[in-house]
Amino acid sequence: MTWIPEPLRAIGPGDLAWWQWCALGTAAVLSIGIGRLAAAIFESITRRLARRTATTFDDELLVRLIGPIRMFGALGFLRLVLPVVALPSDARSLALDILLAATAAALVWGTLRMIDVVASHLSGAPWARVRPSSRALLMLLSRVGKVIVVVIALISVLGALGLPVGSLLAGLGIGGIAIAFGAQKTVGDLFGAFALGIDQPLREGDFVKIEADVMGTVEAVGLRSTRIRTLDRTIVTLPNGRVADMRIETFAARDRCRLATTIGLVYDTTAARMREVLAGFERVLRDHPKIWPDTISVKFVNFGESSLDVEVMAWFQTGDWFEFLACRQDVLLAFMDVVEKAGSGFAFPTRTIHHVGVPPS
Length: 361
Prior knowledge:
Blueprint: H1 6-9, H2 18-51, H3 57-85, H4 89-123, H5 126-129, H6 132-160, H7 165-182, H8 184-199, E1 207-210, E2 214-221, E3 225-230, E4 235-239, H9 240-244, E5 248-250, E6 257-265, H10 271-287, E7 297-303, E8 308-316, H11 321-341
Antiparallel strand pairs: 1-2, 1-5, 2-3, 3-4, 6-8, 7-8
């Protein structure tokens, strides 16, 4: 290459001539533009094909694959330019290994994005929308699939680089048996994640109560643990193996909220006033637009220590807790009006003492 200026033929770092370093830098810069050009051509061709289909799956996949396609285009250009640079054998071998690792990374990147698109598309399907448990299980399977893809790619790259993958796998198998005995809880948590995904006692976004001491919103169900945001805005992390065996109460699954209260009236209340109060309470409940009309119970149930007890039970047709609080407040305020109009009153703890005088002797 006599046309190259003499200063650029001098040897620089890594036993490479300066013109080779310049060529590599120029190729790296040009590869960015070549990658964008390749992605634009690919998008132009596939976009026309995607428009002919009724599904949106291919459109979503196309958008998500633009980044990996750019990377493939850039790496392909660098592979073509590499012989022109005429690198020494050692440097050329190193460059090929780097390109191989980068290509594997691009392939893994594209595969992971494909898994995201497939999982998202399946989760939005009609059969999945009516089965929330299927949607959560799909998300869990996509996470497991990503881990498997990364592990397979890592093993493949190590094998391509000449490392003894067979011995490595054998060692991992023997080590895995030893580790399994010490990681039984971790394995149990992994199977617990699958149990939670299949049985669906809770889902991300649900407001739940676990046993008697944990109450909050499920933020994430991972492969090892479940995270719950409590009412105090703290995060409680529970192992999945333990959660799968615990008593879980899911408030998000309920279709109605129950109103259950006992109202104590003063002992001065006559039978006629009691009947008026009972009829008024039932009228308030039946007139409320959110009350489930099939089961309404208003009964005088007990002569208490300091009150005449009226038990009220009904259900509001809502699963939203804050809407239930507002509805319950409306009903209780209406109960106060009923008691006042009937001429009665609400009792509070009292004790009557009869003093019997002793006649003087």
